[in-house]
Amino acid sequence: xxxxxxxxxxxxxxxxxxxxxxxxxxxxxxxxxxxxxxxxxxxxxxxxxxxxxxxxxxxxxxxxxxxxxxxxxxxxxxxxxxxxxxxxxxxxxxxxxxxxxxxxxxxxxxxxxxxxxxxxxxxxxxxxxxxxxxxxxxxxxxxxxxxxxxxxxxxxxxxxxxxxxxxxxxxxxxxxxxxxxxxxxxxxxxxxxxxxxxxxxxxxxxxxxxxxxxxxxxxxxxxxxxxxxxxxxxxxxxxxxxxxxxxxxxxxxxxxxxxxxxxxxxxxxxxxxxxxxxxxxxxxxxxxxxxxxxxxxxxxxxxxxxxxxxxxxxxxxxxxxxxxxxxxxxxxxxxxxxxxxxxxxxxxxxxxxxxxxxxxxxxxxxxxxxxxxxxxxxxxxxxxxxxxxxxxxxxxxxxxxxxxxxxxxxxxxxxxxxxxxxxxxxxxxxxxxxxxxxxxxxxx
Length: 444
Ligand code: GDP
Prior knowledge:
Blueprint: H1 4-18, H2 25-41, H3 46-61, H4 71-86, E1 102-107, H5 114-127, E2 132-136, H6 144-155, E3 159-160, H7 168-181, E4 186-190, H8 199-212, E5 216-222, H9 227-240, E6 244-248, H10 257-266, E7 270-274, E8 282-284, H11 287-294, H12 300-310, H13 313-324, H14 330-343, H15 346-351, H16 359-365, H17 372-381, H18 385-389, H19 396-406, H20 410-438
This protein binds guanosine-5'-diphosphate.
């Protein structure tokens, strides 16, 4: 999970600060030293870390003081703001021109996730009402065209290709005409990548840029490559002038060095993050929410947005009512698990819930194995309707029967009942939080 190492260290540092009624300059220095170490361990660019530390120090000992906060909270607030600022502060949106078609040129090195991201992006923007056309302009990697065609077919989005015998510039030009005559208002061009930055590739990308004048040039880089991704971004930006970066494989990146350095080093904002292999595993990149995650404040907004995009509105309303009425049963629990599975891997979802985000707590909860869900289903199915509604009153002999019926053990039945109880509590918190957000309140 992204930032898990950094999150754990920073949260530990700040736990120590929070407890203090007064902070001396030495306390702040000590904490900042730890912050610095944590950022360097997370593979954040050295210069970025130095600037960061200086800024926080200046603000923490300067006039930037609010009487409503304890000194510890104040330092945390400053670190939060500066972390968010490092990543661009506010969300940077993709530039979709009002005069169709919008042309988006995807660039990057091989293996970074360019082809997958082109498909993900077209899918996401289609949900927003666009009519995308994918363009296969990578004529060098043998399987690239086929790969894009397969992804396009999965999504039912047309893919324009002219095989690998034409030049990428000709393909891009023809694709634009094709889009116009088929009233496609968004053209996403998957260009060729190489293993390393090379001059020939850059020259070719410059020619495509000159030929189709894209509204948006997005660089796709692999978050797991850390500072290499930052260097790649710098080079591409110098040659092509990037409008933004898509950081892929954030789901596998535990350090977060690229996420925290790219904007600060290159000036290019991260616009989207890839968070899995599936075609809906892409999110707009929100610097403030990322800072929330790092400092263990969870990312409830992203979770709610995901839920709203994936859940059946009627069901959500029904569920909300049940939660409020404290009438959430095991059957709902099971149904909820099915729904939640649609949101993505469980670990990832849990990381967004405040208080559950830190790696330490996750370890306490025990590994969550998606295969266990099969057992959950079997156990619930072995219960009578009365038992499902009276989970507190299930006797030992009933538990034995349920275990036998589901091919599990009494311990497993007990564990499920305990998890259900925890979920019920969490759902209650979640509902309260949602209420607060709607009221315009703050969480944290
Ligand atoms: P390209 O050479 O840049 O076009 O890269 P591909 O689109 O072929 O992606 C390379 C590999 O990375 C594929 O196996 C993708 O499934 C995988 N990939 C792409 N984006 C993500 C992501 O956000 N998370 C994960 N876990 N895998 C990704």
